[in-house]
RNA sequence: GUCCCCAUCGUCUAGAGGCCUAGGACACCUCCCUUUCACGGAGGAUACAGGAGUUCGAAUCUCCUUGGGGACGCCA
């Protein structure tokens, strides 16, 4: 029987979760759930300069928002480790990496490197000028481990570098790309442990994946060439290689890697713009993977049951905000009204829109019934609910044209007088119909000339939902401005 | 520069040699519904990067070219 599937998502905490990272997390999560395996969250915070505790919290919050849950790693609430393969933060695993590095040194597979950046840079330039690859060569005389320790004790610092000696092709059977062949002379000696004692990505990634018994590694394509170094390390340690799958990139419209220049790129950006996590989830699922059944809108259950690595797409995907908007509107509409209201409310509040009548569930139900097909994002709710907020009423620019119609003043005059005859706080749909008929007769105006001025009087703009639906949603006092 | 990856409508994609006069989705256009805006319904336009091969037959296999991306960090 095959070993239980164990996959991980290993972000470096340097800001909000990027949509590309979110997709990697989603794929790993779905793969684990599909196979009844485990999904592990590991924090790759070995870059002391850029990693922050705050970023880690942000990333965890974003993963939670997306509804991705992990079985091992920092507890989403307490941040304390869950699972028995911890610690799950690389900054807390230094001793493990050091022990591994020393193992390599003892075997002569790695060495202490006292060379300075300047020296290495010089050597690199020389290599290039000689038409050779710009890679770090093994020094002519390697400092013996014993001497190195003395020098370090005396205050010098050294990196630990892996010594590439094998001259052969490494063959990777990538789950996304098929067979990929790396000639070992592609790379020079590479750093495992920095001179400050922190390990580098390629090193801790191997140690952790092996020790955490990771079976499958799905990660972005940028790591494809890194895999050669990692394969060398797996070999050196005698650890079994996991299965790798290198995912294509998500690009911006200009076909460049998605970055800040492209506007929204983090999950948090999309949350703030009023996108539902379900929609963002579903959308990123489909850029880089396709359903074997050709489905587009998929529930989490369907995603899990259909998710296999055969459906990964090797070519990069351009992020299409327009399609995301469509998907978001589909999810918006599918939400039960009380849930939709719960999610809409904060956005209305943020926009300063107060709706006294919203305390009435029936009112909310009616209003959402009208507006939900017009909203693309929760943020849009503000535009639609705005005319219903008494204090925010404004006559829009485009409405002036309607008011300038010769019939408009007749209609409005009649509307006002008919309205004053009506008793009660609100008009029902039937009452409005009757009232509109009366205006029609009194003013002698019909069609567009009739209802557009009324609409402007009611919501401040010539276009919008049907009046007979809109009017019952408003108190009589605000039907005429 | 060296090495690696990628290449089907504007975009996401289906397609694993004949089922392809290339299918779906978003967007776009037209019409229908509608006293506006939307929703909904019915249609439409639009793609195999180029060139050589292999084959009776190629979007699918091979090679080359071109284009895009990545790695070559004591970033991840």
Describe this structure as you would to a colleague.
- It is a single chain.
- This protein has 481 residues and is mainly α.
- The chain is 42% helix and 10% strand.
- The chain is built from 19 helices and 13 strands.
- The protein has helices at 19-34, 53-65, 94-106, 117-129, 145-153, 201-211, 226-237, 267-272, 277-285, 300-306, 321-334, 337-350, 361-371, 381-385, 400-403, 406-421, 429-443, 448-459, 467-470, and strands at 6-9, 38-41, 73-74, 81-82, 110-113, 159-162, 169-174, 178-183, 190-193, 216-220, 243-247, 250-251, 317-318.
- The strands form 6 sheets. A 3-stranded antiparallel beta sheet has the order 5-6-9.
- Strand 7 (169-174) and strand 8 form a beta hairpin.
- The mean pLDDT is 90.
- The chain binds one RNA strand of 76 nucleotides through helix 4, strand 8, strand 9, helix 6 and strand 13.
Write the layout of secondary structure elements.
Layout: E1 6-9, H1 19-34, E2 38-41, H2 53-65, E3 73-74, E4 81-82, H3 94-106, E5 110-113, H4 117-129, H5 145-153, E6 159-162, E7 169-174, E8 178-183, E9 190-193, H6 201-211, E10 216-220, H7 226-237, E11 243-247, E12 250-251, H8 267-272, H9 277-285, H10 300-306, E13 317-318, H11 321-334, H12 337-350, H13 361-371, H14 381-385, H15 400-403, H16 406-421, H17 429-443, H18 448-459, H19 467-470
Helix pairs in contact: 1-10, 6-7, 9-11, 12-13, 16-17, 16-18
The structure holds one RNA strand of 76 nucleotides.
